[in-house]
Design brief:
Blueprint lengths: L17 H24 L5 H13 L3 E2 H8 L3 H13 L3 E6 L2 E9 L1 H22 L4 H15 L1
Antiparallel strand pairs: 1-3, 2-3
Helix pairs in contact: 1-5, 2-5, 3-4
């Protein structure tokens, strides 16, 4: 299971000026990520593990590690380590690629399919809990403001 735990991030201080706005947004993003990681950690997953399971589930079959790295937007060595951990947890199996002897594919196990379903549910519940802190008006304003900052 997920042996690494992230420390819960402290709530960011209110910005004192325009120079602190970006740091406040980044601090808030870090705190939200830590909250999602903690929720998934309770079921033995992480955002990275769930993301990889999602790609495998969506593919409906084995994927080459190279392709998983592209889909996760990371280098292959990171995917190799992540697949190692998922394989230790018996959520993924490595398979030889019959079309390319140099390539290895990863496939979901039945336990991996169940873990993916559980992880999706836990993530959705935590996201709803986070969103409940906002009124509908606050949510609309925050979404609009974040779109402005992302331009």
């Amino acid at each position: 299971m997920n042996k690494r735990r992230r420390k819960a991030a402290a709530r960011p201080a209110a910005p004192r000026g325009s120079d602190a706005i970006v740091l406040s947004v980044l601090g808030t993003a870090h705190a939200l990520e830590a909250r999602l990681e903690a929720a998934l950690g309770r079921v033995g997953l992480s955002l990275a593990k769930l993301g990889l399971l999602q790609h495998l589930a969506a593919a409906g079959g084995p994927l080459a590690l190279r392709e998983l790295a592209e889909r996760q937007c990371c280098v292959r060595s990171n995917i190799t380590q992540l697949v190692d951990r998922l394989e230790e947890d018996r959520l993924v199996l490595r398979r030889s690629d019959p079309d390319d002897r140099r390539s290895v594919k990863a496939a979901l196990t039945p336990a991996g399919e169940r873990a993916y379903g559980r992880g999706k549910q836990v993530l959705a519940e935590e996201q709803r809990a986070i969103a409940r802190a906002l009124t509908a008006g606050d949510a609309k304003q925050l979404t609009s403001t974040l779109h402005l900052l992302a331009r």
